[in-house]
Predict the structure.
Amino acid sequence: MSDIETLCWGYGLLEGPRVDAENNLFFSDVPNGGVYCRRPDGTVEVVIPKRRGVGGIALHADGGVVVSGRDISHVHNGVSRQLATFDAVGTNDLFVDAAGRVVVGTLMTHPFDADLGLGDAPRSGGSSTNAPSGQTPERKSGDCWRIDAPGVTIKLYGGIGLTNGIGFSPDGSVIYHADTTANAIVAHDVAADGTCGNRRNLVQRRGFQPDGLAVDEAGAVWVAEFGGGCVTGFGPDGSVVGTVMLPAKQITSVCFGGTDRRDLYIVTADNTEDPSRAGSVFRTRVDVPGVAVPLARI
């Protein structure tokens, strides 16, 4: 493992990192709004202004990005095309399967309306249940959906308390899903027809707050630990295969990039090295490349 680079900072709660073939890094600022692109020369541009609550980003084969939030939209050259909307508070992390379909989790309760021990984490732009003062609202579980075409959605499974990172095993036979309230990474087998079954936990432990995740070519699931100050790699059997410690505590998401996909990008909601920097983007080098992420084609 190489040293940690700090690439940019000064944001709120960052999410949705995704790197394209030219090594441009896309990421969002959930509470403050906006989707950004960091170029390889270090310059940062606004790709989508103001949009809040973007927890997941995918690259589209026709250009532009697919983003979550109040709905799922494909935004290209400033033009937004709605792909799906759900009867939910909003949507969070998303991913793309080998066929170019978008897989996303729904939020049925505002992420910071229940007692998760998330401290002073910035709030997203989604709706709130506005429970009376001193009361913790009942958390309603969300679902995992696949968007096959604009307006065409298939429910894959339910029972995800607070939906976060989603990813597939290298051969696409297993889908992993972070459920922060369950302190678990949930796994399902994916059948040839796309249905999901044999639900189990890859890992579950007290105090574990998994956020975004990314899978490498060896099948390890690298998980951002919110409140844990690290990214932890879990093998397909749930064993710990590696840990990356960060100069931040609120680690929110992670992705692979670079020409060899061995650059590990990590985004946060804070910076313990210099608290004034707040949400930051870090990068390090790892030994095993990340799985190639498909482009959205819907």
User: Anything to note?
Assistant: The longest strand covers residues 152-160. The chain has no helices and 24 strands.
